[in-house]
Amino acid sequence: MTAPRTGSGYTLIGADGRPYRSSLPGTIGGHRRGRRYGRLDCPAALRALARGGYVPDRVFFADAATARAAGYRPCAACLPSQYAAWKRRST
Questions:
Q1: How far is CA 31 from each of CA 8, 52, 69, 72, rounded to the nearest angstrom?
Q2: What CATH code is carried by the domain that includes residue 52?
C-alpha cells in the first residue's frame, strides 16, 4: 500500500506531524492513533488492513527519520531491532 494520491501527488506527514503534498510516495507507513511506523509490507499492518481496520488512521512518511521526528515509534513486528532500541531509550 502506498500513500494516497491527491491530484498530482501524495499526502505525507512531515516532521512537524502535519500533512503535506509530495510528488513522491512515502517509503514508511504509520498508524496515527498508535503513533507507530513501519515498513509498507509490515505483516501486522497488512493483517489489520485485510480485516478492514486501520485505513482511517493510516499515514505515510518520506522516511523513518521523519516518522521519528513527528513522534512516532518503530513497529515491533516489522522493525524489531529499531523497536528494541527505542524501548531501551524510552524506559
A1: 24, 14, 15, 9
A2: 3.40.10
